[in-house]
Description:
The structure is a single chain. The chain is built from 14 helices and 15 strands. It is α/β, with parallel strands linked by helices. The strands form three sheets. Strands 9-10-14-15-13-12-11 form a seven-stranded mixed sheet. Helix 7 (about 155-160) crosses helix 10 and helix 9 (about 190-200) packs antiparallel against helix 10. The radius of gyration is 24 Å and the shape is globular.
Amino acid sequence: NLIVYFTDRINDGYGFHPQSLAHFKAKGVSLIITVDVGIADGGTVELAKGAGMDVIITDHHEFQDLPRTITITGKRSKCDKLYHLCGAGVVFQLVKALRSYLFHRGFFAEKNAPRLKPYLEIACLATLADMVPILGENRLITYFGFRELERSSFPAIRAMLGEQKYGLTERDLQFSLIPRINACFRLGCPELFFNFLKESDERKLTKHLEEIDSLNEERKGISVSLWEDVLEKLKEAEREKFVLVVDESLPKGHLGLLAQRIKSLTGKPTIVLTGEGKEILVGSARAPKDLNLLSILTQRKDIFVQIGGHAYAFGLKIKKAKLEELIHYLEESLRTYTPLEVECIYVDYEGSISEFFEEENILALRELPPYGTGYDPPIVLLKKFEISRIKPFKERHCEVWLKDGFREVRSVLFNRKIEKEPLLLACVPYINSYSDSLEFRIEDFKDELE
Length: 450
């Protein structure tokens, strides 16, 4: 007898909250298993135990004082292969261990053991979406899960991928599938995606997908409007070493997205806060990769009601009365920090187009994806080439055909156009799984004399 319960992230914020316990008690729940939440909620755990309910916490966040219950997390040692798991990755390991335990005790003697490969797809999606480092166990989850996604066992995922299912790249997931999933959660409709994922009826799948796409369009519209409002306030919010936006009208579901965009625009660590009741501000923080902002702020936990997440992306709650103290602490802590003015592109290799047609390089390019946080694609510098033709597509992008002797290869450039033939190209080589051919994604270009 299983009940799935989603916390109200819009009204209650993140966390395993005491107000959920009355619902569980009324349903006769005896065991609560959390997913990606609860490691900082020891108080709620004690209340649940006092009400006669056992609790198992599964969470991938770090917290010094663990709840007094069974807590499953990969955060044992930074050298451990499980250290970088996301919340779904932690649950996947738990399911693997439980299946193995039951198998060796004969539980499946008279019935088939459940297949775990379909859940590997979900763990892969979550790992890429949560932007945790693709290191240790995460490399295995994404490598094998990504290849399962190409022939997904979930009708819902096949419906979302549509035409892309035979030419899948991690960029398809990052720019098409994952934003639509996130829209459901940001706008307070997680049940919609959960029900969609379970569905197999084609008519219901189509209906759910239309609702999800509608939510995603709504998210885009809200994001544009909010971004325009925030840009007007940015001059006031931007300080020498960081950006702090405080606007109690901002919706909670968009704080992380706004913080990320401001950080990308300014290159500075950014905190965006909105109101939660009369006395509390809740927010999201983003930091450049050369600054562990979470480590800095957790040195002063007394300032915060709650804080936790990843080094460069985390959530926080703070009393309004503590806001000036936070500003002063940030100014002091970041006094010697110098934000990077220009984001550099680091080239891994300088070579020619024809080299990448060699068999060993083609084989390597097939095995490397999917890429993600901490596991970037190789960037190569191309010098010796000709541009045989350029073709714009979807208004802002263009296809560029590069020629090296008798070899010609298609490359794509997103959100920019080439006006004249450059002498240097920084590119990512990859195999287009739809056409099974070598292609390049142009990351940057310049005249050699610049």
